[in-house]
Amino acid sequence: MHDHPEVLCAGIVVADHVSSPISHLPAAGELVMADRLILTIGGCAANVAVDLAKMGVRASVVGRVGSDVFGRVVSGMLRDHGVDVSNVLLTPDADTSQTMIVNVAGQDRRFIHTFGANAEFRAADIPLERVQQCRVLYLGGYLLMSKLCQEELVPVFAAARKAGAKTVLDVATPGPAEYLSRLRALLPHVDVFMPNNHEAELITGEKEPVRQAELFRQMGARTAVITLGADGAVLVSETARLRSGVFQMPFVDGSGGGDAFGAGYIFGLLQDWSAEDCLCVASALGASCVRAIGTTPGVFTRAECERFLSEHHLQIEHI
């Protein structure tokens, strides 16, 4: 059937409570006014699915929410964006995962988070029949969810590959820990591994992004893309070694930029584009994300992205 989701986006689903920038953090007992307080979608799986939907891609979220009002709100928002939520599971005894994001003018964001239903997410939640029907399997937030183990993920990724799908893995590292052993068996089943340079340093102990990418390649990943925020990205594959710059964009809020980059790269994979072209569309979506408050509102639609790429050039060098 032609209406199967092209991309399964598995992993973290969050309800984000976001403040527009305030003048200062309130002191004890003080009330500080914000122009807006927004309840919106967050979490890698939800963000990537929404961004893909904006690019005209059929996407499905595989994840968990609680049976609370926030679970209903998140599921409804995903549906409103045209995302398939038939694989979003209700976890009755848990709250929906939530993050409070406090933006203070001129300062980095502050986060207060409750892990909620995401703590219960496991490989068995990813339906194998859907895996075998998709063109890309994306898993976001790996290493953060304690019940998601590589021994159970390997058969899922292997099934996707066997059915002809590409596999894309993103991670979230909550702090210093031993992560390498949790990737050794999984990376040989990964087509594109895309941590940021801080995550890659925590995993490998290596500071230099090209070395980080080379190590992940040696561990079995076909392509390693290390995102560097405002400094662009580094890509190492069997046939390419690239360093890309960034597109300049007025900065409002950085939330979701990495997920938008991932969605753009997946869009390129669906078109069978070269690594350079995948980096271009990934960088364009990542840059567009920072234009607005929240993880997805600023992200380009397909028409906007195509127009932007026709008018702007991304610096990419072979290294």
Describe this structure in words.
By secondary structure, the protein is α/β, with parallel strands linked by helices. The chain contains nine helices and 14 strands. Strand 8 (136-142), helix 4 and strand 9 form a beta-alpha-beta unit.
Secondary structure tally: strands: 14
Our count of helices gives: 9
Rg, Cα atoms, Å: 19 Å
Q: Strand order, biggest sheet?
A: 5-4-1-8-9-10-11-12-13-14
Shape: globular
Could you tell me the mean pLDDT?
95
Largest sheet: 10 strands, mixed
Give the N-terminus to C-terminus distance in angstroms: 42 Å
* Uncertain parts: none
Strand content: 15-25%
- What's the SSE pattern? EEEHEHEEEHEHEEHHEEEHHHE
Judged by helices, strands and strand pairing, the structural class is alpha/beta
Helix amount, in percent? 25-40%
Topology readout:
Blueprint: E1 7-11, E2 14-19, E3 37-42, H1 44-54, E4 59-66, H2 69-80, E5 84-91, E6 98-102, E7 110-114, H3 128-131, E8 136-142, H4 150-162, E9 166-171, E10 192-193, H5 197-204, H6 209-218, E11 223-227, E12 233-237, E13 241-244, H7 257-270, H8 275-289, H9 302-311, E14 316-318
Parallel strand pairs: 1-4, 1-8, 2-6, 4-5, 8-9, 9-10, 10-11
Antiparallel strand pairs: 2-3, 6-7, 11-12, 12-13, 13-14
Which terms would index this structure?
alpha/beta; ten-stranded mixed β-sheet
Please provide a brief summary of the model:
The protein is α/β, with parallel strands linked by helices and 319 residues long.
